[in-house]
Design a protein that fits this description.
Elements (H helix, E strand, L loop, with lengths): L1 H4 L11 H35 L4 H67 L2 H25 L11 H19 L12 H5 L31 H5 L1
């Protein structure tokens, strides 16, 4: 049967964008290598043309250099075509990756949307408001408990405003008597008798007292008198 009808050929899957781009890049590298070799030959021919006198020999070298230059131009055209194909493949690959990213983003958003809907089904706004009201009531009860526990014992509650003002006036009078007109407390004011009449310690035995210089009498203006010798001169 196989000889009559033959064998069905399997379809070869088309190459991917990455495979096609890799193949074209290899071809481009090969063309670039050929162009570098031709450039090296052109440099040699250029040196020979400089060293050769004008004539048949120089014309032959120029002819060979012209042929190499034409080959280089052809390879450069092929390289440009390969570059354009690689650029187009890169654009296709970029667009493909963008579509894949968009698909993944949509899948993630759908999953998040489903989870959010499921969560919102278990959470109702009425339950939240009810919980907030209960929390407010509990806070009020807590404040009342704190105020009750902070209440002082044996504190008279029958103090009126007149008694308060009288107490304040008495405190102000006591503070005025204690500080005095200089506004300095009595315990900070210096003791005049003890500070001014402080006696010096006695002179040890065997030591004579150093005579203290006597103050000269002053004139009517409080100035020391002028020596007589200076007045005579």
């Amino acid at each position: 049967m196989k000889r009559v009808f033959g064998v069905k050929k399997e379809k070869v899957p088309p190459p991917t964008v990455e495979e096609a781009a890799e193949r074209i890049n290899k071809r481009g590298d090969s063309v670039d290598e050929k162009i570098r070799k031709l450039d090296a030959e052109l440099v040699k021919y250029r040196e020979q043309i400089k060293k050769t006198r004008p004539g048949p020999a120089q014309e032959a070298i120029k002819s060979r250099a012209m042929r190499i230059l034409k080959q280089k131009k052809m390879y450069e055209g092929q390289r440009d075509q390969l570059y354009n194909q690689t650029f187009n493949l890169d654009q296709v690959a970029f667009a493909t990756e963008g579509i894949r990213d968009a698909q993944q983003t949509m899948a993630a958003m759908k999953a998040a949307n489903k989870d959010l809907k499921g969560t919102l089904k278990t959470l109702k706004i009425d339950d939240v408001e009810k919980m907030q009201d209960e929390m407010m009531d509990l806070m009020d009860i807590s404040n009342e408990i704190q105020e009750s526990l902070g209440r002082s014992y044996n504190v008279p509650d029958d103090i009126d405003e007149d008694e308060l003002l009288g107490e304040l006036d008495a405190l102000e009078a006591d503070m005025g008597l204690e500080t005095g007109p200089s506004e300095v407390p009595s315990y900070l004011q210096p003791d005049k008798e003890s500070d001014l009449d402080t006696e010096l310690p006695p002179v040890p035995a065997g030591h004579t007292k150093v005579p203290q210089p006597q103050a000269e009498p002053a004139d009517d203006f409080g100035l020391p008198p002028v020596p007589r010798a200076s007045m005579r001169s």
